[in-house]
Amino acid sequence: MAAVTSIRSAETVAEAPGGVVERSGQRRIRQQARAERDVTQVAGDMHVYPPPVPGRSVEWPVWVGSVPRLAAAFQPRTTMRMRASEAQSEGSEVVLSGVGGVGKSQLAGSLARDIRDLERSEGTGLDVLVWTRADDPDQIITAYAEAAEQLRLPGVSQDDSTAAAREFLKWLAATERRWLVVLDDITDPAQVEEWWPDSGAANGWVLATTRRDDAQLSGRGRTLIRLGLYTPEEARAYLHRRLADAGHPHLHNADQADELAAELGHLPLALSHAAAYLINKRRTMTDYLTLLRDTDSRLGDLLPPSADTEGYGRPVAASLLISLEAVEEADTTRLARPLLHLASLMDPLGHPARLWTTPPALEHLRTTRPPQRRRLRRHRPAVTEAEIHSALECLRTYALTTQDTYTAPVRMHALTARAVRETIPSHALPATAHAAAEAIRSLWPALDHQDRELSATLRANTVHLDQHTHPALWRPTTHLCIRLVSSSLREAGLYRQAIEYDEGTVQRSNEIHGPDHPDTLNARHDLTNSYSGAGRIQDALDLRERVLADRERLLGNDHPNTLDARHNLANSYRDAGRIQDALDLAEQVLADHE
């Protein structure tokens, strides 16, 4: 290994081996070293690396690791690229953050290729490019050690990768050569911190990707760029080009492409698998949408490994849930997984975080939280609000959920939610569904106008909960939340939507309970109210007559529900102009209450 000559740049003398002071030739050595770029300078000391022995010269440029190939029909993500380029020009390192499958590595690969190819074309040259996975420090160390070996750094031994990696970091901090290091898929920022290169000089840049959203990632002057889903335009362009480039433009339908993108939540990874599925199976978008909307279909069938044409290496479900193991290790409350199960049943657009601090939710989480020790299995301590907030923060940190502020709605990508739901044991789903429904019921305002936004959010979440768990909320009886949606729609003046909802409720109740079940009669009663509110007087009157007859037959003349049906029919007679019929029935109602 070549010896290192040390030149102290702060003095006018230089020490040769053996301690002999040399003054002559200093400038010549320094100039020659700089010209050959075999010099590093740290803390005032200039280290000159003499040329390596013959046959061991560095072959420039030095590439370590493989930059991912650009996916078919790659979308440039122009806005995010511009932000990254601006940060680079300002000397800031960039961290691309986002949930699994949004294309972080693809964008990083595109940026790395642009820098490499542009500089080579301009003749300036990128001397060193290192691309390494960063989910394990050992992979970073291995890549850095390989770079140190290719650079022929003095003191580097193949027997000590860690020492070699540290020498590479020192070289990066001091060299005048141009370099780029990409840390792909950081899972633990704390473990990566000591292996993060110093890119303070203008000749080096660090680009990283991660699912995490920690404050640590934006420290030290780094720019954190949150990479989101495809825009509708990007999703549309991707599907059109992907199918056309594969020679199957006939499989593309513009309107259905928008529907397909929406069903997949505009997730790039899912769209890639879906397009490959269409190509491989020669299926139309109509066929695929039918399969996708079937709640019994599993992601592994809809987005199979055989559709991984871009070499992502993981099934979609596994990619979406890869952070779950890390979450459970970091979650000191042991509530993250049961909370994730509950959240996966909610509306992807958001649900109130305070749902999970309601008494029904706290009790469910108390009974489903894994015990810390076997001997404590019988003793399950109460769950506190602080523990709920801690678990939610853990889920946010690992990008399984998103939440703009502490009190903002909690959101989960639709495909992530679907992947989570597939992990819920079938025997546990009914109890989980009922716990979520009870939490919603307990949060519902007594009067909708007291908090219209909350009421609208709870309506949407009840509908999603029912869709994902059907028929859990209908057995043994129909949960009150189902009826609360109906009354809430009417209070909001959304009569057309109320009628559509109630007609569906009547149909499902007929199928599950039968036409004479009290819950079915209640559903028909709600539909009459929606007809009346919408001004469909005759429809309301006809149905109310049938509801009254059925309640008298099944419940008796004096049952409270029968009296209520009689009162409503009197109102319908009045609305229809049948005043005498209305008066007669009203008198009967009054007599019944005496």
From TrEMBL:
A single MF term (Gene Ontology): ADP binding
Source domain of life: Bacteria
Chain intervals with Basic and acidic residues compositional bias: 510-527
Stretches the record annotates as Disordered: 1-39, 506-527
Domain NB-ARC, residue spans: 93-235
InterPro entries xrefs: NB-ARC (IPR002182), NLR-like (IPR053137), P-loop_NTPase (IPR027417), TPR-like_helical_dom_sf (IPR011990)
Pfam families (alphabetical): NB-ARC, TPR_10, TPR_12
Record-linked Gene3D superfamilies: P-loop containing nucleotide triphosphate hydrolases, Tetratricopeptide repeat domain
The protein's name: Tetratricopeptide repeat protein
Lineage: Bacteria, Bacillati, Actinomycetota, Actinomycetes, Kitasatosporales
